[in-house]
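[Automated response] Your request has been received and processed.

Submitted sequence:
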Amino acid sequence: MGQPVAVTKALTAASDNAICLSQSPGAAGNLTINGASASGGVATLDSQRRVIITSAADDSAKTFIVTGTNDYGAPIKDSFAGANTGIAQSNLNFKTVTQVHISAASAGAVKVGTNGVGSSPWVLFDSHIPTPNISFAAVLNSGSATIQVEYTYDEVVNSPVGSGSAIAYAPATPVPLAWLHPSLQNLSASNDGGLTFPFRAWRFTILSGTGSWTVTGTQGGISGP
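Generated structure:
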């Protein structure tokens, strides 16, 4: 029987301009990081979470590149298309944001901040144990929030795409690909469930709310020689 691994996460309230206040870039380049979470040109968030870019006009043909770090301090970079008068969300979860780049002049004002979505770091699963299985206990500690438990078959340690030292991901093809646990979805109250097949890693994602959750994964099976 493996040792239980417990992960606790909570998010503060969303703020759509916590990273960059409203601005209208006239050409390709970096936005000014000057929101309430920024200091010295770096935005530091409460916990790693998705970044959103809100466009007042059609920026769907523009590419935004967000650079920063995750909860572990590892450098990450995410590239994704803007929205047509609305919100574009990053694929990755950022603890800090050090740069937000737009590929061309914006069609109107843009601002950068957070929504109510954020994932915990990935927790590795030992897929080499014979008859692998894992049980999850998801406990709402306080407040109100909705979560889901996810797993992936992809590598979570070194999966860079593109250039530079940051762990980067191609537009619209985030790696690792997260699969939903079949029963631990849209949870607003404590619950449990398990998986009985091998995979690479697991995590949980807060979908909305500011409550605190702890998800504990306990892996079973007989270790090999």
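Summary generated for your ticket: The chain has two domains: 5-10+120-220, 20-115. Residues 73 and 81 are 25 Å apart (CA to CA).
If you did not submit this request, please reply to this message.
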